Amino acid sequence: MIGFETIGNATVTVFDDKPILTTDPWINGNPYFGSWSHAYSIPKDQLNNILSSNYIWLSHGHPDHIDPESLDLFKNKTFLVADHYGDRIYNDLRSKFKCIKLKSNEWFNLSKNVRIKSFADWNQDSCLLIEIGKKDILFNLNDGSGLGWSKEIKKIISLYKNKFLLKLINWGDADMINFYNHHNEFILPLAANKKPCGESYNYYMKKWGCNYSIPFSAFHKYSRNDSINMNKFCTPLDEHYEKFNNKFGEMLPAFIKWNSNNETYQKINPNKNESNMLDSSQFGDNWSDDLDKSDKDEIKKYFYQFDQIKKKFGFLSFKVGNSELNLKFSNKKQGILFETPRNSFIYSIKNNIFDDLLIGNFMKVRLINVPSLYPDFTPYVTKYGDNGLSRSKKELKKYFEYYKFNSANFWLDFLKIKSEQIIRNKIEKYKSVYYFARKIKRTFT
Asked: At what angle do helices 150-157 and 410-426 cross, to 10 degrees?
């Protein structure tokens, strides 16, 4: 068979008589310090196909996409990664596995009927175009946005008959949402509004020129006792289809086997996993543990590296057990208070994976005179810093120069993102107005 099947969280397996390529195989692990687990099981046949694939493509560093506990299952396979500045993922993998770095916007042949194009962007995400035969193209956007490549990608997609969009679309819990205001009151996330996902599928299918869409990269649940309450913000599978219309194409089931020869599909019906609660102590996290002197030194060493943090924030504060640590940068009143268990916190900064701590959504983040972690904290710490290895002003200059030179449409997408950030920050107090205006824009553009 020539075609593909979708399963798991963000996994698509591509066939050319046999399994050729699998993307982002999260199989064994408990990502985000045990906070996440699979919403659905992976059936035996699909698991065998994943394990039999010749190539494994990894999109970005989040552990529900690069699952450290699953990597050894593919020790005889070839890993494919994007050509990011700093090459963190590539360098980490090639010491133990066969790994190929794909140059952005260049076709790479995997078999007679399958070839791929990878695209790296400045947010340390990557997306993938997968050509199957001459009629089918899969656009695996996973958690990213195709930054710097939108015009080029659309042009390629337009050449095919069957154009499949695989993109994270949900109510919005697959990010940091455990926020509190300066009064220590929980801030309801946008996911609480449960906005119809179908409208977003309509918008992105039109934007990218796809005539099929498949729910993707959105099948997790919370399992730790200190994050399990976040499950009320997870999007049930049937909600993905709410208010979808077929004006621009068809929305397929989340888990399917597509046959490119006859252009038909069979639905895969994985079992839904039970919601078992795991204690945070199973992952080394005891909320009563305090910081010691060496921990405090590690925290200072880590955060004082970021020039953007020192420029934009007056302070960062940390409450761990009965310990408190305050880092003062200036007299500005803007700051952030993090309340978190010690083990995962110290592990995340020692291993440069602070995003894992954020997305686990057990850490409490109190925003003091700032509307959000964006755009001055999260990308600078987790994207450009941890993943891109660029923290100082000088390092960031080189970082962005790389993506300007190695992206076809850098300025087109960069200015769009910056404009949206400026508008969003100015009307943060009027979120309902902003999202109503965005809905109108998506309807008529």
From this structure: 120
Do residues 254 and 6 lie in contact, with contact meaning Cβ atoms separated by under 8 Å? yes
User: Which of 346, 435, 412 is CA-nearest to residue 151?
Assistant: 412
Tokens of 157: 């997609």
What Cα–Cα distance (Å) separates residue 188 from each residue in 31, 192, 200? 24, 6, 21
First to last CA, the chain: 38
Residue pLDDT, tens place only, 84-122: 999 999 999 999 999 999 999 999 999 999 999 999 999
Q: Please state, in angstroms and rounded to a whole number, the distance separating the CA atoms of residues 146 and 150.
A: 6
E strands of 18-125, at which residues?
A: 18-23, 36-38, 55-57, 78-82, 98-102, 107-109, 114-120
Distance between CA 212 and CA 252 in Å, rounded? 7
Query: Which residue in the block uniquely carries the two structure tokens 């960031």?
Result: 396
Phi-psi region at 204: left, alpha or beta (left = phi > 0; alpha = psi -120 to 50): alpha
- CATH of region 2-277, choose from 1.20.58, 1.10.12, 3.60.15, 3.30.2010: 3.60.15
Residue boundaries of the structural domains of the chain: 2-277, 281-392, 409-444
Residues 6+ apart with CB under 8 A from 132: 2, 3, 4, 14, 16, 113, 114, 138, 260
412: exposed, middle or buried (C-beta count within 10 Å: 0-12, 13-18, 19+)?
Answer: middle
In the chain, % helix, strand, coil (3-state, to 5) comes to 35, 25, 40
Q: What is the pLDDT of residues 3-18, one digit of tens each?
A: 999 999 999 999 999 9
Q: Give the list of residues 6+ apart from residue 258 with CB closer than 8 angstroms, or none.
A: 3, 4, 5, 136, 164, 264, 265
What percentage of the chain has pLDDT greater than the value 90? 92
Q: Residue type for 246, please?
A: N
Rounded to the nearest 10 degrees, the angle between the axes of helix 293-303 and helix 342-350 is: 50
DSSP state of 209: T
* DSSP one-letter code for 385: I
Distance CA 51, CA 11 (A): 12
Q: What is the mean pLDDT of residues 140-156?
A: 97
**What is the spatial distance between Cα 236 and Cα 90, in angstroms, rounded to a whole number?**
35
